[in-house]
Amino acid sequence: MIILDTNVISAMMAGDCAVVTWVMALGEQPVTTAITAAELLYGIEQLPDGARRRTLRSRSAEALSLMREILPFTTDSADVYAAIRAERRRGGRPIATMDAMIAAITRQTGAGLATRNVADFEGLGLRLVDPWSAEG
Asked: 9-56: per-residue pLDDT in tens?
């Protein structure tokens, strides 16, 4: 199972052909997290009311409907989240709250994470994939 990070779904919404092709070649319907959905929707809600906002709302609904599942943040995820945040803080590499939540869901489910921001998630014991890289 591959979880798509916010930047991957954003690229799909923008029509990035390379990313769309990569996702289609996965051989399985992708999943994402409720955290990613929240990040996307929050970004759209910040925009002034108008055509761009309406277009992005429509594209986000379409992109999210393509997901096999939108994984929730559960109490089990919260345990993993706490460990990740504490581990990174002790190591002097704090992690953003939303990234830690996505990482927790990824680690908890044993899935891989497709993201352009590989460096943000390194050292967390996750299987990371960059759809923009030659190895992606």
From this structure: 999 999 999 999 999 999 888 999 999 999 999 999 999 999 999 999
Closest listed residue to residue 97, CA positions, set 66, 73, 123: 73
49 is in an annotated binding site: no
- Ligand-binding annotation for 130, yes or no, is no
Name the 3-class secondary structure at 127: strand
For residue 135, tell me if it sits in a domain.
no
Q: Are strands 2-4 and 112-114 parallel, antiparallel or unpaired?
A: parallel
Strands 112-114 and 31-33: unpaired
Query: Which range marks the domain in which residue 38 is found?
Result: 2-129
Domain count, the chain: 1
Region 77-83: mean pLDDT is 98
Q: What angle do CA 48, 45, 66 make, to 5 degrees?
A: 125
- 7, part of any domain: yes
